[in-house]
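Problem 12. The chain below contains 155 residues. Write out its predicted structure in token notation.
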Amino acid sequence: MIRLSFIFLVFAIGFFVINFFGCNQSDITADKTLQNYVEQRFDNNQSKTTILQKVTGALYLQIEQMNEEEFKNFSSTKNIKKKEFKILSSRCKNDQCYITYYLSYYNIDSSNKTEVITDVKKVAEVIKEDGIWKIKDIVNIKTYHKSLDELQITN
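Solution.
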């Protein structure tokens, strides 16, 4: 009886350790990789190294070749705040996924007043590289800007 309890205890501890410590980067899905990337893009403390870890292919080369000023402009979210992110569909085959998503964000002025709301619909190609999902490409489908202030049209 004691031996059976001991075996059960060892099994339970092993199960706990595997589940608690076993979740690593390779366990993250393509959808979660994209969500993490979008969340990070709205972070004010973006680093080129961290972004490069999440991308591959032409997107990787494009970001890697940016000089300091270009990357600063690319990563600047000073006047932009995320409103909503939603995955609309995900088509996966083996180690390649095409994920259609909706993103809404707003631009704010220096007094923290919302000026424009932007809604975009995009498709991200996410591939598994060395066991880790990475973003290979992002293509814009449509963009909609809504100004909250009345537009002044002059001749």
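Discussion. The first helix runs from residue 2 to 21. Students who got a different answer should revisit the alignment rule from Section 12.3.
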